[in-house]
Amino acid sequence: MVLSLGAIVASIINPGPQSYLTVGVAGAAFLVSAAVLFTYSRKSTEAKQIPLENFSLWADVGEPAAELRRLGLGEKFAAAQITATDLDSLAANAELLQARTSILVGRVGFESVTEEKMHRRVETLVSDINRIARSISASRELTKDVIPQIEQCAEQAERIADKFFELEEGKPETIYIYLEPLRRAAEKLSHDLRTAAANISKYLLWEEKAPEVLAPTLPAAPSAETPPPPETGAQNTSTASPSPLPEVPPEQTTENK
Known about the structure:
Blueprint: H1 2-13, H2 19-47, H3 76-104, H4 111-115, H5 118-139, H6 146-168, H7 173-214, H8 234-238
Helix pairs in contact: 1-2, 3-5, 3-7, 5-6, 6-7
């Protein structure tokens, strides 16, 4: 671009038979160079902006722990694997939430996100979910103690969603469009964690009561106080009660004589 500008100046100072052609070519080169420079600088500015599309992509988990309904009695290891896998998927979404929250930290307009340490809150949630999943995998079976732990994580996610709602309130549209997807993601994460806890609770309750329902019903043993059944046949004849004796006539008194 500098050379083109120099050629234009030289052609004006020292005019010649082809000066107009030189000025035209140099001017065209100058315009092309300016357009390229403008395009490059524009792309560089756009690259510094936050990619909004990253805030709308999340892992599709489905209904957590729903596959427990397909299991039968005694499949403890399979139940643990299903639950741990679904919790890992929920942890992956929590990690996405943490990463996208961290993008906003320190940026102009998102000072409240930094002040409230939202990325740290989500990071704690990620750690708790991963800890529960590892514990289930290590124990190789489901136990009731994981239910309150998962419910506690659901409460954490709910508080995070509520805080995002507070932070986006009254903010301009340029701030809202970034915070709202994070709020919805935290809200969905809370709902999924509660669903997982409910499905685990139902499965463990069914597993506890199923043996009682499926156990065969045996006839009750006869009681010791139950009288023996009446005997029949010859035994009845031999054990029959004796016939009553005839009544003795009353003695006659002297007067009757």
